[in-house]
Design goal:
By secondary structure, this protein is an alpha+beta fold. It is built from ten helices and 16 strands. It has one domain: B-lactam Antibiotic, Isopenicillin N Synthase, Chain (Jelly Rolls, Sandwich). Strands 1-2-12-9-14-7-6-3 form an eight-stranded mixed sheet. Strands 8-13-10-11 form a four-stranded antiparallel sheet, with no helix packed on it. The two termini are about 25 Å apart.
């Protein structure tokens, strides 16, 4: 398995994005970003321009959503959406064939479903969200958060490209138009069992992930075969590299494994924003890295449970199909049958 963490890690580094905007600090920022992206692939991001007020607002709205009566959350259950949008109960999502002990709501870029639903399966990922009824504030706050995080993620992506010696427009074909972004509001209920899977070891299929977490621990990053804690840093995002950048750099950058251990005697809330390419972007391009960087590129990961696919749409839908098996069984029966034949899942997983 490719391993980006080339040195023993005890704590994630912190990058201040505001340094990218200053001529006196930009060169140093890009140098640090290049080093951290290659050797670690995970870091805290401060100086991102998202106000404390907005952060507290999205955290408040997240807690309010999960405090709704169960029947109200179930009204917008993901099983009602072929686009994999909506609410999932505890243990509904699966990571590496094991259920995740968390509840969540998945929200994407708001677009109408494509008609007719023909062509590649991944076209069905495009569609409307499901929103709680009689609560316009929720949609307003969440939509504003998506817009703000999209701007931060794209700015960071362009900085990363510059740090790799590329034009900052080198991957514009992936983010032009309507991005297939995903926002997850997540609640990890407390559990008595130690080391229980909140979400299992995995890598993210997108370009970049920006995670807002609360004071309750549980997030861990794999470093030299050991799981390293990623504690709360006030008003900071935890950023990690996704599969798209691993493919675009031919494995020079690596999407690193991470997981969440369910908290004991506490509740954990987090808000994860995933910047993903436009579904219709086609093939993920291969960046023309400098020779000294190419020499360090070992090719993308080869995991039989998670093959990395260069076609944007196919790489996007693979994880959705295997993670939300009830939705797959209902709307994608042919793909569900293939999953049953190739793994140990059942329709009750």
């Amino acid at each position: 398995m490719n391993q980006p963490l080339q040195q023993s890690l005890t704590a994630l580094p912190i990058l201040n994005l505001s340094q990218f905007d200053q001529s006196s600090t930009q060169a140093d920022f890009l140098q640090r970003l290049a080093h951290i992206a290659k050797d670690i692939g995970f870091f805290y991001l401060t100086g991102h321009g998202i106000s404390a007020e907005k952060i507290l607002e999205i955290q408040r709205i997240t807690r309010q959503f999960f405090s709704l009566p169960q029947e109200q959350k179930d009204e917008i259950a993901m099983i009602h959406s072929p686009h994999f949008r909506g609410y999932s109960r505890v243990n509904a999502e699966v990571t590496r064939l094991q259920p995740d002990f968390r509840e969540q709501i998945d929200i994407g870029f708001e677009l109408a479903a494509l008609e007719p639903e023909t062509g590649p399966t991944w076209r069905r990922l495009q569609g409307p969200n499901q929103w709680p009824s009689n609560w316009p504030e929720f949609q307003r706050v969440v939509t504003a958060w998506q817009r703000d995080l999209r701007q931060v993620a794209i700015k960071l992506l362009k900085a990363l490209l510059l740090s790799l010696g590329q034009q900052d427009t080198a991957l514009d074909q992936l983010i032009t138009g309507s991005p297939h972004e995903l926002l997850k509001l997540i609640h990890y209920p407390p559990i008595d069992q130690m080391n229980h899977q909140g979400v299992g070891p995995h890598i993210d299929s997108n370009i970049l992930t920006l995670l807002l977490q609360d004071q309750i621990g549980g997030l861990q990053v794999l470093s030299q075969g050991k799981w390293i804690e990623v504690p709360f840093v006030e008003y900071a995002f935890v950023v990690n590299i996704g599969e798209v950048l691993e493919l675009a750099t031919n494995g020079y950058l690596i999407a690193n494994q991470h997981r969440v251990i369910s908290p004991t005697n506490a509740e954990r809330y987090s808000v994860a924003y995933f910047l993903s390419p436009n579904l219709f972007a086609g093939e993920i391009p291969l960046l023309n890295l400098a020779d000294n960087l190419k020499a360090l590129a070992q090719g993308p990961e080869t995991d039989p449970l998670n093959p990395l696919l260069r076609n944007v749409g196919e790489n996007c839908i693979k994880g959705r199909l295997r993670s939300h098996l009830d939705v797959t069984e209902k709307y994608y029966p042919a793909q569900f049958k293939q999953l049953k034949q190739s793994t140990t899942i059942s329709s009750k997983s």
